[in-house]
Design brief:
Layout (H helix, E strand, L loop, with lengths): L9 E4 L3 H13 L7 E4 L3 H10 L4 E2 L12 E4 L6 H11 L4 E4 L6 H8 L4 E5 L9 E7 L5 H12 L2 E5 L5 H9 L1 H18 L4 H22 L3 H8 L5 H12 L1 H19 L1
Parallel strand pairs: 1-2, 1-4, 2-3, 4-5, 5-6, 7-8
Antiparallel strand pairs: 6-7
Helix pairs in contact: 3-4, 6-11, 7-8
Length: about 270
């Protein structure tokens, strides 16, 4: 739980999908409660979603302070407007711990905009919604051990977390930040293959999803290299090796490598 002796709550700035995933994950895990969270969001339709699904969250007046009196300002807006949001927080005078999840926005960009270095750059991902997130973070010069612990506890409540040097953040953005989209494409393609082979859509999707989830768990829990697990399934002259040959011919692995690399490159460009 958030230590109420050192925090007056969390203000989420930007109520889109990633902000939703993090907040819902933090509430579901017991890290914090909905009543401890405020939302700064100018879009009425986005606010309607929060009112329907998490009515205990306080929605701030659009014309009032962005960060309110919160100890933590969780910045979940599009990268192009992060600096504008932070400049407004600077003008308000209150100096919350700034935690940004905007892709590509560097610590120095944040510091220049907000006027102090108590800032943290985070790259979470959407599986945080179900407690299976993978997050990395790096810290500005004014982050002390107490701030870092708070951020780490916040992120641990929704999955795994690792503190890294900022130079690795773009690569992590390409891998785990964008990765769920690539995995969804794989699940969809596997299901399509099942439909092509004669399965109903529902059955194909059920088996594709479970196969991906189960295989990921197998890799994670056994610590076995994926190549070794792949070889264990591929009997000589069998069905799996025939499928592997087709996947290699179609460039499956190179396509996924290129996807991660392109996403990491775009993250650097955004910064």
């Amino acid at each position: 739980m958030v230590d109420s002796r050192r925090t007056q709550g969390i203000t989420l700035v930007g109520g889109g999908k990633m902000g939703r995933a993090l907040v819902q994950g933090m509430i579901a895990s017991g890290f914090t409660s909905a009543s401890n969270i405020s939302l700064s969001e100018p879009n009425p339709q986005a606010c309607d979603w929060w009112r329907r699904n998490l009515p205990e969250i306080r929605i701030l007046d659009e014309k009032g302070p962005i960060a309110d009196d919160a100890e933590v300002a969780l910045i979940a807006v599009k990268p192009a407007i992060v600096a504008t949001v932070l400049q407004r927080i600077k003008q308000e005078g209150h100096q919350p711990l700034v935690v940004s999840i905007a892709a590509g926005i560097t610590l120095q960009t944040m510091i220049d905009a907000v006027g102090y270095a108590r800032v943290v750059r985070v790259m979470p991902n959407t599986p945080s919604l179900v407690g299976a997130g993978a997050s990395a973070y790096c810290c500005g010069q004014e982050i002390d051990s107490s701030d870092a612990e708070l951020v780490e506890n916040m992120l641990t409540s929704v999955g795994i977390v690792q503190r890294v040097d900022e130079k690795w953040m773009d690569a992590i953005t390409g891998l785990s930040g964008s990765g769920p989209a690539f995995v969804c494409m794989v699940i969809e393609a596997l299901a399509d293959g099942g439909v092509l082979a004669g399965l109903s859509r529902d059955v194909a999707m059920q088996f594709a999803t479970q196969t991906v989830m189960g295989t990921a768990k197998l890799v994670q829990q056994t610590g076995t290299h994926p190549a070794e697990l792949k070889d264990a399934v591929a009997s000589p002259g069998g069905t799996t090796i025939a499928g592997i040959a087709a996947a290699e011919q179609a460039g499956l692995r190179s396509a996924l490598i290129s996807a991660v690399h392109a996403a990491a490159k775009r993250s650097r460009e955004l910064g």
